[in-house]
Amino acid sequence: MSKSASCKNNIDVSNKEMKAIGVLGSPHEDGNTAYLLEEILSVLRKELKTETIFLKNYEIRPCEGCCFCEESHKCIIEDDMKKLYPKIMEASVIILASPSYMGGVTSRMRAFMERTWCLRKGQVENKIGTWIVVGRRRIGGAINEMNEYLDRLRVIKVPGCSGYAFRKGDILKDKEALKEARMLGERILKIVKKVHSS
Questions:
Q1: pTM (2 d.p.)
Q2: pLDDT tens, residue by residue, 22-56
Q3: CATH fit for domain 2-197, picks 3.40.50.720, 3.40.50.360, 3.40.720.10, 2.60.40.10
Q4: Which of 12, 27, 137, 188 is the 20 to 30 A CA-CA neighbour of 18?
């Protein structure tokens, strides 16, 4: 957390309506991953505005590797990511939430992550970033993807939360995950308050 002293760059501490966004890569708006995300957001609402971005509602094409953004710092692809870039930029906290079906994050989450390649040069540096991964077993690959992604964006990375579930509602049986989610929300609030007092 050594970056926290300089994180005023992208966290507007003068804004009394700081915002946290949860980016939901699950195809289920009311599934296990969404439930765990809501556990965190419910804690953050004590101090922050929150919004859940359900990626299934957005048409997001994959990155074409054209390198247009290398010079322009903007993506040339005309799709619904144009609606999401402003939400990313205005957020102080970014939470990635994805189930893991085949060892990694979902295809929707992967597309979202790759399309933020144009933001890797410090545009979101020092925002707070974390992750949620839910799966049946062997979810380490998805966790590694999330961590690598947040490192590349240079955010203040907070260790995330994982849960084990398969059928809808199974996450309610993972009491440790529910507890960790609420604790993660509290950790994020402490970091935000530290920024306010610095």
A1: 0.91
A2: 999 999 999 999 999 999 999 999 999 999 999 99
A3: 3.40.50.360
A4: 27
